[in-house]
Amino acid sequence: MADFAAREVRRILVGKLGCEQRNTDHLVFDLVVDGKVVAWTKISHGAKAIPDGLVAAMARQLKVRPGTFRGLISCNVQKDDFIRETIATLGS
């Protein structure tokens, strides 16, 4: 699989998914549902690209399958479907 541009992933996490961004030693993105942080992921400040292995790790952090996370980034998965999978994973 091809790498994703880190800037694009950040834009999708905040703009499309609605994550809240915090700055620590990394850029941290909290996925908030009904006022509660249900999952999070992070990107290094200097990252230019997100390789496939890191995409899989970020998907695990966000409680979805890697294909679902890739689909969100490539605009094939909608926010509601993504959150539904996250919540289902938390319930199992």
Description:
- The chain is an alpha+beta fold.
- It has one domain (4-91).
- Helices cover 46% and strands 25% of the residues.
- The chain is built from four helices and five strands.
- The protein has helices at 6-16, 52-61, 66-73, 79-91, and strands spanning 4-5, 20-23, 27-33, 36-43, 49-50.
- Strands 2-3-4 form a three-stranded antiparallel beta sheet. Strands 1-5 form a two-stranded antiparallel ribbon.
- A hairpin with a 2-residue loop joins strand 3 and strand 4.
- Helix 2 crosses helix 3 (66-73).
- The longest helix is centred in the C-terminal third of the chain and has 13 residues, at 79-91.
- The radius of gyration is 12 Å and the shape is globular.
- The termini are far apart.
Distance between the termini: 29 Å
Rg computed from alpha carbons, rounded to a whole number of angstroms:
12 Å
Please describe the biggest sheet, giving its number of strands, its sense, and whether it closes into a barrel.
3 strands, antiparallel
Report helical residue fraction: 40-55%
Q: How many individual β-strands?
A: 5
| Strand residues, percent | 25-35%
Low-confidence stretches: none
Oligomer: single chain
Helix-strand sequence: EHEEEEHHH
Task: Tell me the number of helical segments per DSSP (H or I, 4 or more residues long).
Answer: 4
How many domain modules? 1
